[in-house]
Amino acid sequence: MMQLFKRSDKADIPALDPSAIVLGGQAVKVRKVTIGQWRELFTVVGTLPQMLVSVMTAPAESRISYMLAVMESAIDDVVNVVAVLTGLEPAWINENVSPDELMAYFVAVARVNDFGGLLKNVQGALKLTQTLNQAAETAMSAE
Hints:
It contains seven helices and two strands. The chain is mainly α.
């Protein structure tokens, strides 16, 4: 049997941590966002949170186009968020990281942190608050 391809030991590729994403050739661990990072994120973003909510609440078949629109209009916010979460400098990210790597990192962070579940819980809490307020108003008007 003729061997077409030979394995070369010269090209040993280290195993990548399954919880890591490669950004600009550098492996970056995807972690849960801490409360401290969450607070810091709000200091570096402009309209990104509202835009991300629109992406998460968009119909599934439209999410890609929504996300591309967010990336185009809020790229500086995206770079700043990735800088906070990874510890990489924004200038380094701008020079070394591709848009597809940024997107892969964003998706991985969203999965690890279950942002969709967080959004649903917040929506549920808002509905509960609204229901409680209506009940309180009804009770007060009945007195």
